Amino acid sequence: MIMMGRFALLVFLEFASMQLLCIAADHDAAIFYDSFEEPFNGRWIVSEKDDYKGIWEHSKSEGHDDFGLLVTEKARKYAIVKELEEPVNLRDGTTVLQYEARFQNGLECGGAYLKYLRPQEAGWKPKEFDNGSPYSIMFGPDICGLTNKVHFILKQKNPKSGEYVEHHLIDPPRVPSDKLSHVYTAILKPDNEISILIDGEAKKKGNFLSAQDFDPPIIPAKTIPDPNEKKPEDWDDRVRIPDPNAVKPDDWDENAPMEIEEMEAVKPEGWLDDEPEEIDDPEATKPEDWDDEEDGVWEAPKIDNPKCQTAPGCGEWKRPMKRNPAFKGIWNPPLVDNPNYKGIWKPRDIPNPNYFELDKPYFDPIAAIGIEIWTMQEGILFDNILIAKEENVAKSYRDTTWKPKFVVEKEKQKAEEEAAGSDDLGGFQKVVFDVLYKFADIPFLSKYKLQILDFIEKGEKQPNLTIGVLVSIVVVILTAIFMLIFSGKKQPRVEKKTEVAADTSNDQGSSGEKPAEEEKENETGGAAPRQRRRDT
Q1: 166: part of which helix (H) or strand (E)?
Q2: Which residues span the membrane (predicted)?
Q3: Does 381 share its domain with 284?
């Protein structure tokens, strides 16, 4: 038994030593690697340009003893660069670019990408590194507004024009929307294939020379529209035109209003014409610190007139408005096929003077790695930046540096979500109920608002009933729609206005203008008390 135990221990030690040797070998195979376990000062150069005020820090990743390069302030520009010992030739075999980024405070608007810079002979200096510094590749996450992508941009020189052109990977993957550590990998292969991996999983593949994968294409089109050709003045490209023979009907009154007073309406008995809907609060007093010169003349806040609470209404009575049966709007002649239509004009194609052919992209060598970003969030952590020539080297780094952290963070996230779900609503359920509360405020559902709110409150108290609550509210909404369509009862005027628009569109000719619909109804609720001027 003892012999077996010793044997197992020897096997384990041998296996562990093999793993260490493999890791050491992979480290030797890396062209460049920075784990940021040591302070970056002296190795990375912070830009001294005036626009870049953001402060970089050597900091631990939250929850780990692992260090990284940290963005410390929000709403700042950051720029920092690391020169490589020797330029990396991207045309020679496979090249793997990889690094980790973690948005510890989330990311709503900002970048977390790297720029792989051309040699300094291209016209840049480390201490003057900025967004104009010439790069060969830009790679990494970018989020702001409608933008959410993991960029891959190749900047290549056109051998005919001599100009550098940015070629963007089409349909790049989206950025993970959490606060965990993620590893981004770009694999450039000698057969012109480009692969983008997130956390070791392939998210996008393309071909550098394919016009479907890069915009603009790396190989320009053979022909281009003639820039000097202009559309002839007599070229008619209108598919349909107003009927020149159409005549406005005699009974079409363009000046008829969309709504008219309901003359049959009678002022309700007990209506208080001389009473305002709001009155000054009789209990309000002018504050002792009120300064008439600074704050203006003090006015008591308004409250609902108590006399109006029991009356049908207060103030000047006006007849309600109703749909005008004579309303038709502005008359426009109907459209007919254009007999002079010649089709959509476009200039003729001519040979592209900047066309060239390539068997593979012309990559400028990489001489430095830079981070040049603008971000509205702090807490972005960069770590384990790697350049290698073999995919298995990058995989080894992911397995040994990123994966252990990610597993810990994922477990912690899961535990927090489970705890939140047991104490309160889970994330999904909270989103669902927030949406349902908005449904309850839809005007045409006002009759059913209390019923909907009752369902929502039951669901919040018993989160496992979420699906049942959804079904119940859908039934209520469908019932409301059914009643709206088929009920013979008079509907609110706002619904009648919708019918006007629909009827008008079916009238003779074409009513091109649909006047804006404004609802003016008596409001029974009181306005909020006025604020002191110094409080506004």
Answers
A1: strand 164-169
A2: 465-486
A3: no
**Burial category of 240 from C-beta neighbours within 10 Å (exposed 0-12, middle 13-18, buried 19 and up):** exposed
Q: Is residue 427 within 8 Å of 420, Cβ to Cβ?
A: yes
- CA atoms of 323 and 201, how far apart (whole Å): 61
Residue 448 lies inside a defined structural domain of this protein: yes
Separation CA 143–CA 149 (nearest Å): 7
Give me the count of residues in the chain: 536
Q: What is the pLDDT of residues 445-481, one digit of tens each?
A: 666 766 777 667 666 655 555 566 666 767 777 777 7
| 244 assigned to some structural domain | no
pLDDT value for 486: 57
Token pair of 442, please?
């839809």
**pLDDT at residue 46 in the model:** 97
CA-to-CA dists, residue 240 to 150, 191, 237, 507, 512, angstroms? 44, 51, 9, 20, 15
Question: Given this model, what pLDDT does residue 535 score?
Answer: 41
pLDDT at 134: 97
Long-range contacts of 490-497 (CB under 8 A, 24+ apart): 492/443, 492/444, 493/259, 493/320, 493/321, 493/322, 493/519, 493/521, 494/443, 494/519, 495/444, 496/322, 496/323, 497/258, 497/259, 497/323
Angle between helices 449-461 and 466-486 (to 10 degrees): 170
Burial of 391 (0-12, 13-18, 19+ CB in 10 A): middle
Task: Give me the long-range contacts of 117-121 (CB less than 8 A, separation at least 24).
Answer: 117/81, 117/366, 117/367, 117/368, 117/369, 117/370, 118/364, 118/365, 118/366, 118/367, 119/87, 119/364, 119/365, 119/367, 120/367, 120/368
The DSSP letter of residue 214 is E
What pLDDT, on the 0 to 100 scale, is given for residue 458? Answer: 63
- Token digits for 6? 């010793």
Helices 427-440, 403-423: inter-axial angle, 10-degree rounding: 50
Asked if residue 41 lies in contact with residue 48, where contact means CB atoms within 8 angstroms, the answer is no
pLDDT score at 19? 43
* Stated pTM of the model: 0.62
Question: Is residue 355 in some structural domain?
Answer: no
Query: Are residue 177 and residue 40 in the same domain, yes or no?
Result: yes
Total tally of structural domains belonging to the chain: 3
Domain that holds residue 98: 30-225+360-412
Which residue carries 């007139």 as its tokens?
305
For the segment 393-424, what is each residue's pLDDT rounded down to a tens digit? 999 999 999 999 999 999 999 988 888 765 55
The stretches in the chain having pLDDT less than 50 are 1-5, 7-26, 488-536
Picking from 102, 26, 2, the residue whose alpha carbon sits closest to that of residue 62 is 102
